[in-house]
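Hey all, sorry for the wall of text incoming. These are the two entities for the joint prediction.
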Amino acid sequence: MIGLTHYLVISAALFSLGIMCVLTRKNAVSVLMGIELILNSANLNLVAFSRFTSGNLDGQVFAVFTIIVAAAEVAVALAIVLSMYRMLRSVNLDRADTLKG
Amino acid sequence: MNANLVSQILFYFFAVLTVGSAAVVVFSRSLIYSIFGLLFTFFGVAALYVFLGADFLAATQMVIYVGGVLVLLLFGVMLTHKLYNLDLKTETFQFVPALLLIVAVFGVLLLAMTRATWFSGGVRPPEPTTAEIGKMFMREYILPFEVASVFLLIALIGAAMIVRRRAQ
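and here's what came out:
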C-alpha cells in the first residue's frame, strides 16, 4: 500500500536535486529551475501530510499560497535576469558581482 | 488484476517520471533539455497530487506551473541567449562537492523520514476538494487570501518596473 513515506521520499529526492541545481549551475535561469524544484518538493510534502495525518484541507490551502508565491517569484526573478542581461550581456551569475549598477 | 495493483504500478511510474525528469533538469548540459525535463517533473507532481486526492491542486499545478511558469522560463532562456547558436550549453562548477553534499542531505532526510513515527489522524477519503477549499478561502483564510492578491499585484508592478527601459 502506498503510504506517507513514499511521498516523503519522492519529495526528499526532488529537494536534493533542486539544491544540486542551485549549487552547481552558473546560468541564472537554471538556478531558477532549481528553486522551482525545491518549492514543488515542499508542496508535495504539504499535500501528503494534509492527506495522511490530519484529514482536513489546511495543507492544500497552504500549498495554493505556496504556488502563488512561486509564480510571483518567477516573474520578479526573470525581470531581474532580463535586466542583468541588458546590463552585463550575460546571465552568468559569477559576473554579477558589483553592487552599484 | 485488481485495482490496487494497477494504482501501485501507476504510482511508481509517476514517481520515477518525476524524479527522473528532475535529474534531467539538474544534470543535462542543454538548457532546452532542462526545461523539457521540468515540464515532465511538473506533470509528474500533478499526477502525484491526483494520487493524494487533491484534484484542485492538480489542476492548479497544470495551469500555473505548466502554463505559466514554464512559459516564463522559456521566454527567459530565449531572451537571454543568442538564438543563432542553438546549443544553449550551460556550465556547471563545483560538481563533485555539491554531489557529495546532496547525497548527505538526501541520506539524512531519508533517515529522518523513515525512522519517525508520524501522527496519523485518519486518511481523507478521495472526494472533490474544490468547493471545500473555496469555502476555506472565504472563511478562515480570508486575510491571507486578500494579502496574496495584493502581493500578486505588487509583484506584477515590480516586475514591470524592473524590466522597463530607463530614459537615458
